[in-house]
Design goal:
Shape: globular
Strand content: 25-35%
CATH class of the largest domain: Alpha Beta
Keywords: Oxidoreductase
Family: Belongs to the Gfo/Idh/MocA family.
Protein name: Putative dehydrogenase
CATH topology of the largest domain: Dihydrodipicolinate Reductase, domain 2
Organism: Granulicella aggregans
Order of helices and strands: EHEHEHEHEHEHEHEEEEEEEHHE
InterPro entries: Gfo/Idh/MocA-like_OxRdtase_N, Gfo/Idh/MocA_oxidoreduct, GFO_IDH_MocA-like_dom, NAD(P)-bd_dom_sf
Helix content: 25-40%
Structural class: alpha/beta
Strand order of the largest sheet: 14-13-12-11-7-10-9-8-15
């Protein structure tokens, strides 16, 4: 017998929900958006009417206590994630929370503890773990395609000054600038494809006239388990570009535009400077696969690829990255 879709309400509805989440929900067989709440109630009413969303909740509390909601997808600014998650969990709702999970690792750990106490499922929307390009790279590396991984790098660049999320430059609302916003994607991707953990981080970052009290761009060097050194670039002042690359004892695996969900991604294997193979993958279903994976986990099926507990590890890495920027020293995770 086919189960009814998991009924999800979006808390903190905004540009990301319209651009990425609603199209994914529309293609998901396992989930359905049934409601939303946002601080601007006039905008919320317009969103519900435009997108045919049944419940336009007047308050966060109304959303989190509704019997018509099974799970809450939190897409509010970073500083609100903790209170939003605790409210949903206290009312027995499963939670899928956008990254970065919180303002720091302590808050993230509090969220994990609250989910355990409430007996509800808790996941992080690290959607790139559901990209076929990352899944392929993880499998190839595990099978020894490049030998022993030695050096890895992940770049994520975008022009934040042109983005609609103006709160991203407000340190009272955002975990940070691009380190917290997209650097967390790069750190998480490296952890995922290498199946390795971050041990220490050294950070260089720069502020500018547009960045407020957060950084504008940054470079991080990370020591990871397995003797792997990695380099992460998080740049909020450059044209859009992403890159994932792993250099091993037997070759190199490179994915230019490795995080892209808007066009096919080419993963290239090189050895001795020559192309050995090239595999083209399409990540268009990444968000859909994430939603369906979350629904399966909530129902007791397969484990979700980005659990709340795993998200704490990313937050510890971010904490170390920001501590290093302030101290000028390499910091342990």
């Amino acid at each position: 017998m086919t189960q009814a879709p998991l009924r999800v309400a979006i808390l903190g509805f905004g540009h990301h929900a319209v651009r990425r989440l609603l199209p994914a929900f529309a293609r998901s067989n396992e989930t359905k958006v049934v409601g939303l709440w946002r601080r601007n109630q006039a905008a919320a009413a317009e969103d519900c009417a435009t997108h045919g969303i049944e419940h336009c909740f007047a308050t966060r509390e109304e959303l989190c206590t509704s019997p018509n909601v099974d799970a809450v997808f939190i897409t509010s600014p970073d500083a609100m994630h903790l209170d939003d998650a605790l409210l949903a969990m206290k009312n027995g709702k499963a939670v899928l929370c956008e990254k970065p999970l919180a303002m720091n690792a302590g808050e993230a750990a509090e969220m994990v503890a609250a989910a355990k106490a409430a007996g509800v499922y808790f996941g992080v929307a690290q959607n790139f773990r559901y990209n076929l390009s990352l899944e392929f790279m993880r499998g190839q590396i595990a099978e020894g395609l490049v030998g022993q991984p030695q050096i890895a790098q992940a770049h994520f660049c975008y022009a934040a000054q042109n983005a609609p999320r103006k709160w991203i430059a407000d340190g009272s609302l955002a975990c940070g600038g691009p380190i917290g916003d997209v650097g967390v994607h790069s750190i998480d991707a490296l952890r995922y494809i290498l199946q390795a953990e971050v041990l220490s981080i050294s950070t260089l970052a720069k502020q500018d006239e547009l960045s407020g009290n957060v950084e504008a761009y940054a470079a991080m060097q990370m020591e990871m388990t397995g003797g792997i050194f990695s380099h992460v670039v998080a740049d909020a002042r450059a044209p859009y570009r992403t890159l994932l690359e792993v250099i091993g004892s037997e070759g190199v695996l490179t994915a230019e535009s490795g995080f892209s969900v808007d066009k096919p991604v080419e993963v290239v294997h090189r050895k001795n400077g020559q192309v050995v193979s090239s595999t083209t993958l399409d990540n268009v279903d990444g968000y859909v696969r994430m939603l369906d994976g979350f629904a399966a986990a909530v129902r007791g099926g397969a484990d979700f690829l980005a659990t709340g507990a795993d998200g704490v590890l990313n937050m510890r890495a971010l904490d170390a990255a920001y501590k290093s920027w302030r101290s000028g020293m390499r910091e342990a995770v």
